[in-house]
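Holo prediction. Input below; ligand is pyridoxal-5'-phosphate.
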Amino acid sequence: MNVHTYATHALMEITTRPPAVFVKGEGSWLWDHDGKRYLDFVQGWAVNCLGHSPAAVADAISRQARELITPSPAYYNKISIELAARLTELSGLDRVFFTNSGAEANEGAIKLARKYGVLHRSGAYQIITFERAFHGRTLATMSASGKKAFEPLFEPKVPGFPKAQLNDMDSVRRCIGRETVAVMIEPIQGEAGVLPATDQFLRDLRSLTQEQGLLLILDEIQTGIGRTGKMFHYEHVGIKPDILTLGKGLGGGVPLAALLATEAASCFAHGDQGGTFNGNPLMCAAGIAVLGEVSPESFLGSVTEKGELLTASLAKLAKQYWLDEVRGRGLLQALALGKPVAAKVAAKAFEAGLLLNAPRPDTLRFMPSLTVANSEIEQMAAILDEILRDMHPAVDPMGA
Ligand SMILES: *Cc1c(COP(=O)(O)O)cnc(C)c1O
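Structure of the complex:
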């Protein structure tokens, strides 16, 4: 069957998509309309932490669908209470507000910080964010993002997001003024091409915000839920944020995200925040299933081991083909190619049945399922090796 058989013109055109329509997924594999199989190192954009259609999530939502889908956010429901308790236990934060997307969680974090500014800092409202940051696609989260391509879009932006530079404390200090209430950061800038904040920088940010009475907001939508080998990236660093946002992996593929805060920062009053689908039992049941699988130490240890294999496999290719560098932590990694050929490599990989993401012209990103098999990492590296070899005819991979 041809892809043009499908009425894709009924969808708004928002991005270039390859000529395939996906119909089935299992673990690290996806199948398109023609029955072609793909090894998936995108996984719904680091969303499917347990792979495609994992039994734990499928069982949880089918059981929950028969029990109770949603009673309205105006009422308590048992499943969201259970998931909130589990998340506070794991994170060390005190309160949770569930959302339907990462952007909505960050939008809530921004509102919470502004409310805190009204209550405790004479109306301070500015939130320092970072160049190249990505926090979502609502108007406020696009304004908070530091993505160059967003700059000319949808003017006027939401004001109050001065930009500092990643890993540069002086640039943060220069942004602080009387109107500052918070600093918001991704521990690893994912969409920017997997650019890590150093552990020292994150610790310094924590000290500085504490000294100045500012809130530290960690956007762990991409780095949370085991992605880097700890439940939350900040555990590597030994700090705790005042506000934390989670998304992507939290639902294991379904739309579920969360805004967490310490008791001191949880300052919403009745009427400040809400949403029709927020905290519905169907999605929260998926969250409980995901945490059940991901939170055991043994699972997180296996993510670290697989991350090491992924790093080693990419480092080998980098050395062999004189590429730039490998960046990242756990199962969020990037290969910097040193040349603007990432889109071309990703297109060739697609043809070869491997899904890879090119977040920057010179960078490939790898975000497989946390349950990816070692053999699948090796398979991915072998396909990539062949593509790079074809593109580097001058380099003899045998090292002659
Ligand atoms: C994906 C992402 C978001 C936005 O999440 P959506 O669910 O797409 O709205 C925000 N911040 C970071 C760090 C992300 O990776």
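The pocket of pyridoxal-5'-phosphate is lined by residues 101-103, 106, 134-136, 186, 190-191, 219, 221-222, 247-248, 257 (CB under 6 Å). That is the main takeaway for now.
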